[in-house]
Design a protein that fits this description.
This protein is α/β, with parallel strands linked by helices. 27% of the residues lie in helices and 25% in strands. The strands form 3 sheets. Strands 1, 4, 5, 6, 7, 8, 15 and 16 form an 8-stranded mixed beta sheet that branches. A hairpin with a 6-residue loop joins strand 2 and strand 3. Helix 3 crosses helix 9 and helix 6 packs parallel to helix 7. The chain starts with a strand and ends with a strand. The structure holds zinc ion (2 copies). Belongs to the zinc-containing alcohol dehydrogenase family.
Length: 362
């Protein structure tokens, strides 16, 4: 028997849905059926969802992957936080009332080398929520009980939401970089949704942080969050040279490319010191790459190029613990549910410092 809470579960709920998927897509808020949990699922009532640029990629359908409609999905979203309102008949480790989060990976097989080594987000059987399954733009969503994220005390839903994707993604990259306390960490895109959390985490881990982004608002944000220096690409002609100068004249130990622009990828290798790590995180437009980066540079500087996807269950837990300790505070602007389309448009226009979060209860 499925266990249900006292609060009555409605038959329908509000959801942000994509209309006219593709280059001219629009987001609309509609009523959709509340799904019924399968035996191994929990049903989560979300209080908040972050808006991530990946959602926009999925709605634009500009990535070389199948579109949402192929899977019968209309709601993107993978940064949800809320509470369990119903559990499937086989579920024993969750109960109604537990706080729970939605992150990009929906599930994994837990029967392969990648899953066993904490790299389950790379498992070939790890589908994406908000692409292959209805995502967190829908207030009532399903999640496999074994892969649902617990939200610790002291982290509210507006903070937890953005950590599910951006916070956990950048935690994972910093961890894989192997950078040590005292090393220089540079964040192209430091004022953005992923970057501004990277700045805080790297600072909390004892690294020396340089932000690269454009404009005084982003500079102010970055310096407040713990950057030691900021390079404004709208003012400085040779950004890479400026970064090298700041980092002892030798370059950075790690460059965390959280920006999604082709130019960020082009200049990053030039910012590295010998043996530096070039960490690829932000998704650039299709077809862009390290275009002009000469292999001689990689050889001569012993560069390491490492790509990381979204964080694992453990990475997300760790990122949430930094938040619970007050060391990671996502900067966000809240939009009421009815204004979800405006939030999406604002992010698409690139006008966001920090993160946008939608409040399902207002
Ligand atoms: Zn995301
Ligand atoms: Zn697996």
């Amino acid at each position: 028997m499925a266990q249900t809470g006292d609060a009555e579960i409605p038959k329908t709920c509000k959801a942000g849905v994509v209309v006219n998927e593709g280059p001219d897509f629009k987001l609309a808020v509609e009523d959709v059926p509340v799904p019924e949990p399968g035996p191994n699922d929990v049903l989560i009532k979300l209080n908040a969802t972050g808006i991530c640029y990946s959602d926009i990629h999925y709605m634009l359908n500009d990535l070389p992957i199948p579109k949402m409609s192929v899977f019968g999905v209309r709601s993107p979203g993978h940064e949800g936080a809320g509470v369990v309102v119903k559990v499937g008949s086989n579920v024993t480790n969750w109960k109604v009332g537990d706080r729970a989060g939605i992150k990009p990976a929906y599930d994994a097989c837990f029967d392969c080398e990648l899953c066993w080594s904490g790299k389950e987000t790379y498992c070939p059987q790890s589908p994406q929520i908000g692409l292959q399954f209805p995502g967190s733009y829908q207030q009532y969503v399903l999640s496999p009980a074994r892969y649902t994220q617990r939200i610790p005390e002291g982290v509210d839903d507006f903070v937890a939401g953005p950590i599910m994707c951006s916070g956990s993604t950048i935690y994972s990259s910093i961890k894989e970089s192997g950078l040590k306390p005292g090393d220089w960490a540079v964040f192209p895109g430091a004022g953005g949704g992923v970057g501004h959390m990277g700045v805080q985490l790297a600072r909390a881990m004892g690294m020396r942080v340089v932000g690269v982004d454009g404009g005084d608002d982003k500079k102010e944000l970055c310096m407040k969050l713990g950057c030691e220096a900021f390079v404004d690409f709208t003012k400085v002609t040779d950004v890479a040279a400026e970064v090298v100068k700041i980092c002892d004249g030798k370059g950075a130990h790690g460059i965390f490319i959280t920006a999604t622009s082709a130019s960020a990828y082009k200049t990053a290798p030039m910012m590295a010191r010998i043996g530096g790590k070039v960490m690829c995180i932000g998704l650039p437009p299709p077809g862009d790459g390290f275009g002009e980066a000469n292999p001689l540079l990689f050889i001569g500087k012993n560069l390491h190029m490492i790509g990381t996807k979204v964080g694992s269950l453990l990475d997300t837990q760790k990122a949430l613990e930094f938040a619970a300790r007050g060391l990671l505070k996502p900067i966000y602007e809240v939009f009421p549910l009815a204004k979800m389309p405006d939030a999406v448009a604002k992010l698409q226009a690139g006008k966001v410092a920090g993160r946008l979060v939608v409040d399902f209860n207002s």
